Amino acid sequence: MSADIPVSPATAAGPDEEGLAESFWAVARRLRRLSRQTLEPWEVNPGQARALGILTRHGALRLSALAERLRIAPRSATEVVDGLQERGLVARRPDPADRRAVLVTLTDEGVRVGAAIHAARHAEAERLFGGLDPTDRAHLARILRTLRD
């Protein structure tokens, strides 16, 4: 290579090798695409599906607690809940501990749809990660938890 042409780590690795970040983002894009496809039958977006999962695991929550668990702004959580309420998947009711506050709770249909989405996402994950041997899956899970935290 010419001395005046900078060499990036990706260039030095060779044209057929991707950098770690590029590989990670390619997998993330694939996961997002698969997730959108998996959610199509229920006409919910990934944020709404996450909210259903949180409500399934934790039961009725105040909107602020749901926003915190979703790691989004309260206003954005309101929009997520509005969409789910329009579909009949959640209901708002007064918090018995503080009548000024509102709890978000799953409806019977929300429980059914939440369970169906959970099963579909589990099957989706098995298809995606099923090609990895158990040791590689365990290593990947450990690495992703480390990066997440």
Could you explain the architecture of this structure?
By secondary structure, the chain is mainly alpha-helical. It has one domain: Arc Repressor Mutant, subunit A, CATH 1.10.10. Helix content is 64%, strand content 11%. It has helices at 9-13, 20-39, 46-58, 63-70, 74-86, 108-129, 134-148; strands at residues 61-62, 90-95, 98-106. It has a three-stranded antiparallel β-sheet. The longest helix is centred in the last third of the chain and has 22 residues, at 108-129. The radius of gyration is 21 Å and the shape is elongated. The model has no long low-confidence stretch (mean pLDDT 89).
In short, what is this structure?
The protein has 7 helices and 3 strands; from the N terminus they run αααβααββαα. It is mainly alpha-helical and 149 residues long. It has a single domain, classed as Orthogonal Bundle (Arc Repressor Mutant, subunit A), CATH 1.10.10.10.
